[in-house]
């Protein structure tokens, strides 16, 4: 069998890895249109802050390492056309400008997404950067130590925007985050959490300009100098645009079915409208466990899960893509937070009716001092008010307790209720936890609320 895999980030890598695990003698051609294989944008913050020293280390694989396993790796080679009728693709080699056609038995599209380019005046000025891919990582690294960069404006307050803001604040820059939404991180956390995090950002020189959209990038001599919104103008020697992503699927029009957002339509087995073409990653939807519908959740965990399952299906082992909860985590200076499933702030958009309980406590018993690892913790549990089924949760503390969210993610997927969680068995040791885990406490509170 000959399999062509397009794209070398999370989904593409896991597809190749899955095929090698289950059928190592398969012929695999792996294509990356850029000049570097498998760069991981999710690791960019660690590189930009100097935790990881070598930008080339932020990768899953190398051409040499994959070639040693029998994979035919093609870097700087782009698939520009697909002929599903004849099972061929057209390849353009950007290194030597030679073009050719290749045949396939199965084709896997891990084409991903590209940064959304705000269609406002001045969007083509210099010093407006994105934060996605190795090339941008190298450019951004230079700006962190550029003495002419004093003011940075970040557009968007999702994870990428917050990471960019923290990076440049730590580099000594004055940072402003502009977002159309009324709160920073509002797609991931409810107000009880974002209020504290917004204050934490402000304490480190990051100001929030929320509830306002960008109207123009203003320039001088071809370089950006400020960003205007409907509420004000903010000085900017550098703009980092993290205003969202759009599916990289322009080439696929007329090849496979796309939805009205340009996302690739797939069935439960990750097949597109052409059964020999599979799709994984940020250009697809995933089944969302809390409401049983599909949702766009652009996370590495989902892409890798899709890649492994696509590999099994194209090799003949039928396996449906399991529902996911959309679990994620991040740090904002001293705070660590994680969330999964439905939040009060996202419930309406998801078409879900929910109730929530909030518990604040200390991570460890009160007698454990702060310098021994104790700190305040916030935990919010969201559930169905009719039957108590667990729909989501959020947690935050200056101590890293984010792993609790993995338990809630599993509870969502298993369709457990707050009654199931109320007395679930979790260990206790004063150096790590309290006698009742905070998840127990929240679930017990929710059970009482349901009984009223």
TrEMBL record:
The keyword Oxidoreductase applies. InterPro entries: FAD-bd_OxRdtase, FAD/NAD-bd_sf, FAD/NAD-binding_dom, FAD/NAD-linked_Rdtase_dimer_sf, Pyr_nucl-diS_OxRdtase_dimer. Keywords: FAD, Flavoprotein, Oxidation, Oxidoreductase, Redox-active center. Residues 1-307 form the FAD/NAD(P)-binding domain. The keyword DNA damage does not apply. Residues 331-432 form the Pyridine nucleotide-disulphide oxidoreductase dimerisation domain. It comes from the Bacteria. Belongs to the class-III pyridine nucleotide-disulfide oxidoreductase family. This is FAD-dependent oxidoreductase. It comes from Lactiplantibacillus brownii.
